[in-house]
DNA sequence: CTAACGTAAAACCAAATGGTTGTAGAAAGC
DNA sequence: GCTTTCTACAACCATTTGGTTTTACGTTAG
């Protein structure tokens, strides 16, 4: 049942950093290696590498090896998915929810889980 | 110059948590107090209160005092702003950037800063 | 072959995050 | 008035985050 939650967490968390958003912008054409990207920021190579990893785990970016180097390419579809997550959130209070979730449950479980009511206290 | 960066950080960070996204969903009608919200989650009142604060600092939610209690209301416009931030990100690699930033600079500075190139190394 | 480059991964550190409990004040109910 | 309810805030704690440096390894260039 819990499917979208962690994915969405990773997605928005990855977007919640200016350097990472900038990496996304620069990597659309998929021509830049991690080192080339790293040269663009006032931090170590390792730090940029970590940012790329965060973007990768969020599905926002893919890496393609070309010989020595690793080319970073942003997945435009993943960014669209982020927008979709927001639109779905908005849809919740615009009444389109029922039809939405019907469609979604037909294809794959992408409806976010709702935290349990607390039983103790 | 740096205007959108921190705001966007806060915005996406606030969205990067399932409990907070759920609070957003529940608070559209603006009828629920912090305690009422807190009762819905398996964590302490203080924890939920902190989540509401995060949403508030991100501009996603406002609080309105009604006597003893504080009613939470999500600002649908703020969620639209989040979507706009993503659309702007996508616009970067779709050529609409130039016209976009022209329009934006005319109204208010909402263009995100770009981290400096590193000078040392 | 050897040197240089690009990447990966580990160890470490300070600061932020997400949770807890406890204390205190303001409003409402009895 | 007194008690209860709701809120706010502080102090504390464990984990995560975002950065560092160092070491190791594969690939390319001389």
UniProtKB/TrEMBL annotation, chains A, B:
Organism: Halostreptopolyspora alba
Gene3D superfamilies to which the protein is assigned, alphabetical: Winged helix-like DNA-binding domain superfamily/Winged helix DNA-binding domain
Domain HTH arsR-type: 1-94
Taxonomic lineage of the native organism: Bacteria, Bacillati, Actinomycetota, Actinomycetes, Streptosporangiales
Protein name per UniProt: ArsR family transcriptional regulator
InterPro entries associated with the record: ArsR-like_HTH (IPR011991), HTH_ArsR_DNA-bd_dom (IPR001845), WH-like_DNA-bd_sf (IPR036388), WH_DNA-bd_sf (IPR036390)
Cited CDD domains: HTH_ARSR
Single GO MF descriptor: DNA-binding transcription factor activity
């Amino acid at each position: 049942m819990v499917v979208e939650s962690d994915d969405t967490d990773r997605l928005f968390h990855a977007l919640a950093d200016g350097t990472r958003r900038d990496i996304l912008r620069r990597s659309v054409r998929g021509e830049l290696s991690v080192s080339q990207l790293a040269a663009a920021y006032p931090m170590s190579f390792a730090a940029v590498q970590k940012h790329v990893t965060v973007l990768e785990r969020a599905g926002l970016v893919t890496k393609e090896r070309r010989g020595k180097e690793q080319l970073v390419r942003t997945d435009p579809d993943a960014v669209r998915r982020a927008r979709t997550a927001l639109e779905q959130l908005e849809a919740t209070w615009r009444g389109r929810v029922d039809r939405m979730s019907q469609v979604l449950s037909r294809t794959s479980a992408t409806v976010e889980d709702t935290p349990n009511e607390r039983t103790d206290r």
